[in-house]
Amino acid sequence: MMMKTKVLDTDGLRRTVNRLSHELVEKNKGVQDVVLVGIRTRGEFLAHRVAKKIEEIENVHVQVGVLDITLYRDDLRGRLDQPKLKSSEILFDIRGKVVVLIDDVLFTGRTIRSALNALMDLGRPAMIQLLVLIDRGHRELPIKADFVGKNVPTAQGQEVKVEMTEEDEEDAVYLIENDEKEQKS
Amino acid sequence: MKLQSRHLLGLEGVSKEDITLILDTATSFKEVLERPIKKVPPLQGKTIVNLFFESSTRTRISFELAERRLSADVVNFSSVGSSVSKGETLKDTARNIEAMKIDMVVIRHASSGAPHFLTRVVKANVINAGDGAHEHPTQALLDMMTLREKYGKLNGLRICIVGDILHSRVARSNIFGLKTMGAEVSVCGPATMIPKNIEALGIRVYHQLEEVVPHVDALNVLRIQLERQKSGLFPSLREYHRFFGVTKEKVDRAPKPITIMHPGPINRDVELSADLADGPHSVILEQVTNGEAVRMAVLYLLGTSN
Fold first, then answer.
1. What domain range is B72 assigned to?
2. How many Å lie between the alpha carbon of A158 and the closest alpha carbon of chain B?
3. A139 Cβ partners below 8 Å, 6+ apart?
4. Under CATH, what is the fold of the domain A31-73+85-157?
5. Does residue B9 lie within any of the structural domains?
6. Tens of pLDDT along B207-223?
7. Are B162 and B221 in contact (CB under 8 A)?
8. Residues B239 and B269 reside in one and the same domain
9. Which residue numbers of A have CB closer than 8 Å to B's CBs?
10. Nearest CB to A71; choose among B42, B305, B306
11. pTM for this one?
12. B196-252: pLDDT as tens digits
């Protein structure tokens, strides 16, 4: 039996991205030396939306990169199905930059741990900040986001599904109740 | 996404889906090769032994670099000056190495089927780096990756393999892989160097370069083994060059530029003229780079699947 509850609709998601962009600009006192790195797949879409909003607010273009963390996962071995490897596309130097890491859902923190290692292998940034659309709790590592779109308290068996028009039919966030399917990070 | 087999012994019987997965994964690894730190962690803690019973420089270096870039621990073994020269059998060598807790084995051997034999005596994943005149799957995969990069697809591409097809594991692996991917494959060489009934594999046979050149997109020029001359397969290098050497004059008859490939090392001005090898349509060095990416992909896919 599957139950689907909408926790953020199209307008809600747009407003949340707008607020996150403003917070990012405020905290960094502008966006000088700031670059955005989205984690494949929806983190990438989010990063582009945040970049677009920042351009509207500050009239400055912010560079956006995409990070594929597959090679850095701690569950690479022992999974029944291998995740498909895609490449990272970070076409700028992150050394000395403030890197804002962007992902859709923050859950166990393991994805972010992988992303931090992957980033460090690309150079030594001045600082890394974390921006997520949804924080659903249940951390398994000491990781905390700097910018959170919405806190969604969840139970372990639940799943948070972020849909974005770049890949899905609509912009929305759903909370899915699923007894049989194993949840993923 | 997962390969069907836990070994890579050859491309015969490997599905289109598996070849595509390896090539897609290799394309992603190419990005790692462009980074300042060319190292990623997926094979951390895995130990790989490179068992080379036949001399090889570039394949061994390419495998070793690929292994190290995936953070594996690497042991090299070459038969020269080893226990093999003291009369140890392949089975005993393999068993001993296994007792040292090895996870993956890359093997090159002069006998066809040696890698298949290994899979029956050791538990490790086995990768064939060339066995006799049988197969050399990673070479064919890197050739396909290079072609796919250049043309965006393999389906419908027309490839001719030129040279000693009879003794070539590169040719066999290429024929199997390219046919599976929907390419049109032909071979060209002296009658003494073309296996009987090779047409049964669904390929065309030519004995004159001039005939095939107008109908292909790429030529994969094989290295002519100089020692074959002694066995009487061709009278002289000069004569071989005259009839089967790929030269600018012969290639220029084609209506559009032909991509030139070679698995290396090249005998310059024997099977391939120097101006073509270094020319604008040569992808020989791309092949070398792609070789590393393809080997990383194969090692990664096999090494993380269990």
1. 16-132+288-303
2. 25
3. A107, A108, A109
4. Rossmann fold (3.40.50)
5. no
6. 999 999 999 999 999 99
7. yes
8. yes
9. 68, 71-72, 76-77, 81-89, 117, 121-123
10. B42
11. 0.88
12. 999 999 999 999 999 999 999 999 999 998 777 777 888 888 999 999 999 999 999
